[in-house]
Amino acid sequence: MKIAVLGGGFVGLSAAFYISKKGHKVSLFEKEHVLGGLAAGFKQDNWDWYLERTVHHWFTNDWDIRRFAEEIGFNKIIFKTPLTASLYDNSRIIPLDSPQDLLKFPYLPTLDKLRAGLVLAFIKLGPLFSFYEKNTAEEFLKKTMGKRAWNALWKDLFRKKFGKYAENIMASFIWARLKKRTRKLGYPQGGFQALLDHGEKELDRLGVKVLKGYNVERIEKIGDKFIIDSSFKKDEFDIVISTLPTPILVKLTQDLFPKNYLEKLKGIRYQHAISLIIESKDSFLDRAYWINMVDPKNPIMGIFQHTNFMDKKHFAGNNILYVGNYVDFDDPRIRMSDEEIFNWYRPYLMRINPKFQIPKAKRISTSKSQIRNYYVFKGPFAQPIFDKEFLNNKPDFKTPLKNFYIANLDMTYPYDRGTNYAVKLGQNVTKYI
After folding, report:
1. In what order do the strands lie in the sheet with 92-95?
2. Which of 127, 174, 271, 302 can bridge 326 by disulfide, Cβ–Cβ 3.0-4.6 Å?
């Protein structure tokens, strides 16, 4: 059969790989000129490695993507145990990686810390009980850990990840988040783009048509065939698999899917990603790789000193810092220029590390400033709102149209979106082919 896969992120890449191995003719459509979605990388001329647009890493139990990498012959994966911590009072960095760290935590009394530790162990060791989907995370954590633990450990993290929807997020999200997290983290040698490029070569070897720079503009159904009209070609297929973000798919299928089905998909709400990357001579953080910002006075969600995880030698000896946020569509940063975003974050970063001199964007020069460069990326529909409404509206592999399937990152629920579950979705959708 002739199959179209729409979208060239890790879902589309893995779907195309596993379907082609079944002997089908596959065309993979990607509107960008590289595969990967938000995991796609960019590289300066003096860098040896690619760098992702948004921060990426694996946990040691991300077996789906690890097996996929092995299947396509990519075995260059680095595992390390970098320091992760949380920031309080604008500059106090406190590790929270172990039970011992929790016992030393200064913002809770001893009984509250013991209570929180017992609940964390219960969540980590237990399965996804039904009550996680009957309570919000706030309700569950307040009941089990107590209000003081909620305020000290969780409240600000949820507010920064989900914005005005924070109090509605299901407890299943925190279960999945804690269940998956491991102290040791993994990263593909050369960056995620190196893995993507390796996968693309494998698709080429299997005879998959990888159509980069092809923006799908219209999908029609004539008889048993689907007509894909892209910016460069028009072709017919027996089966379509969409890995596109749900709102993009809705626009493309206005004349295909029933109205009630489309309205259901439209009911999913999202936060959008803002990623500021700063390339500098000196390191912003001394030792830590991953810092959660548990400070209501600082709007940053998290900072990641990538070069405290992967060696700075791969980036011409310069240090790489990610500054990340999820924001509502009406947040002014959505419409800011790159320069405006850099200047918006500047004072908040300088409060964290006053010794790190960050000039305004216009004053950055390679000769006078330790800031070598900065990069800004925006990711629409990056984080679905995992509330009760989401449970009723989330897509499934099957759609009302025969031979039209969906496999996109909204379907990673209750787990956080990431490359591991992207690969798992890509493999699972092939079971319907």
Report:
1. 92-95, 84-88, 290-293, 302-305, 319-327, 270-280, 371-384
2. 271
